[in-house]
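Protocol step 4 of 5: obtain the predicted structure for the target chain.
Materials: sequence only (see below). No template structures provided, no constraints applied. The aim of this step is simply to have a reference model before the mutagenesis design in step 5. Sequence pasted as it appears in the construct record:
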Amino acid sequence: MRSRKFLKAEQATLVWDAPGLMAGVDEAGRGPLAGPVVAAAVILDDQRPIRGLADSKTLTARQRERLNDQILAKALCCSVAQASVEEIDTHNILQATLLAMRRAVEGLRLKPAKVLVDGNRLPTLDVLAEAIVKGDARVKAISAASILAKVHRDRLCEQLHAEFPHYGFAGHKGYGTPEHLEALMRHGACVHHRKSFSPVAAALSRMAGEAESAMLAESMVIQTTSIEMRISP
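Step 4 output (structure tokens):
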């Protein structure tokens, strides 16, 4: 006969989340036609709360700048990383975004026990991770990461504007606004544009076509001049 001990169900505590530090991760710059995609990872300090954290898209530029400084000053650690235009064109924007996120997590001074990532896709990590849709509005650490990534990328766009002012990067931040598309049609693409994005590819194709037409016209002028020289008395 089985003992009472055997018949009594043993209850084990299931620990789904490992105890320890938690990092929030978000990106900025998936949609623009130019510039790198930027990701940030943040581990907040519970003893030093930051008021006003929210999805960076809902904040003004001044609010983001103020919160950016507070996050850098009060968080346990932060990391900002990016994937280049070349990596975006080589791997596609999704894979480049995940690469930037992984670099951001790996750049943290402290290793988190768990990583919470905004969205529905996860980068390859060696720690427990969870994707949270609209996490930038629901999880403070992700909100903080979204702010750091946005501010960092906006500052990069200011630098691009100084290098190529005729595209207006300081205003549209690389997004496909009517102003940006018009500049693409007028000036073609620069080295910071993402060649795999269709508006940029169209501009490059048009430039190539115009260059080919110009070469053909020049060749015809040379041939005509040569013929005239041969038949002249």
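Step 4 remarks: The first helix runs from residue 4 to 7. Strands lie at 22-28, 37-43, 77-83, 114-118, 128-132.
Proceed to step 5.
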